Amino acid sequence: MNKSLLHTEIQDFINNNLKSDPASLLLKGVPFDTVDSKLIIEQIEAKKRCQKKLPTWFNSENIYYPNKLNIEQTSSEITADFKSKLISGNHIIDLTGGFGVDAFYFSKRVKHVTHCEINSELSEIVSHNFKALNVSNISCLNENGIDALQDINEPLDWIYIDPSRRDNSKQKVFLLADCEPNIETHHDLLLKYSKNVMIKTSPLLDITATLSVLPQVKEIHIVAVNNEVKELLWILERGYIDDTIIKTVNLQSNKSQHFEFNFNHESKVIATLKEPLSYLYEPNSAILKSGGFNMVSDILHIDKLHKHSHLYTSDYLLDFPGRRFKIEKQIPFNKKAFLKENISKANITTRNFPLSVNDIRKKLKVKDGGEIYLFFTTDFNDSKIIIICSKI
């Protein structure tokens, strides 16, 4: 950590050049002899990445930024805030602290946070930033989190861990056994030191396969932001033997969409099937990740179009966790029937359909955009259909 980067004139230069092209700046050079120009440009690039993802850091003075990879790997503020609302108590330890965004939000919910980071420079940066952010209830330890855990001599209400999803060659990995620390190896140790453990994993992790190797999972939170799944949160509780509850959330600026169900019940219920009625519903990405398609039908008392289509319909308008549409018309999938509708521009979605969106656009000569929404799908009679909709 080069503290010269925090000098007022350099900070002013960084802030004044956030919209500048990094390559041009590198060629032109910077007006400072005390600091390598590459370091200043790295700060500019890292800070730019924080503008939307980490506005608290971006809008605070004297923040020191790590490399771009650390910024890419850190939680966003919106997901960190969500995580913090799942915990309570006096003490939580973050075993894989990183840039400290999760720890920062945990500090708003518990009396004390221990932030562990094995990278000495990153640990120093985080410690400095917490002071700049006026946070006083976080202790930063520059050591391996698993080692630090075994040295703590006070009760822990929670353990939080976000295993590194890159191998020794910096390639991305997804299975728990391939991440570092290996959760499968350290599972019993974590629950020995705290009754409650929260594990953050990649949204690509297979839920069913992971539950088969990860016991005592009380809840799984599938967290999406603006309909893009960002992370899975696994809540473990010492001695828990009941069914796992899946809790999905789609965080949005105006309101959030929630849906939850018992994971073991999905295979025990059967969705009701019907032809398209007055309204069409498309589940958000968190629900699609959960696989709870029969439970959506069962809990919301709503019909599916087909066992594998994952589109729902009703005669009355529901407050549905996803997109809602008014069905204007249904036609069979063939070029002749479609051309009669005189549609040259539309938003196209496919569900359980043999052609891709691009193939459909080429075949039917439909441009993207406009106020018309077309769903190409399969109904419960296994017929290929087009549903013409307007968005609600």
Automatic annotation (TrEMBL):
Transmembrane segments: none annotated. One of its GO terms (biological process) is methylation. Pfam families: Cons_hypoth95, PG_1098_Fer, Thump_like. The keyword Nuclease does not apply. Residues 322-391 form the THUMP-like domain. Keywords: Methyltransferase, Transferase. One of its GO terms (molecular function) is methyltransferase activity. Residues 279-321 form the PG-1098 ferredoxin-like domain. Signal peptide: none annotated. InterPro entries: PG_1098_Fer, SAM-dependent_MTases_sf, Thump-like. This is Putative methyltransferase. It comes from Winogradskyella epiphytica. The lineage of its organism: Bacteria, Pseudomonadati, Bacteroidota, Flavobacteriia, Flavobacteriales.
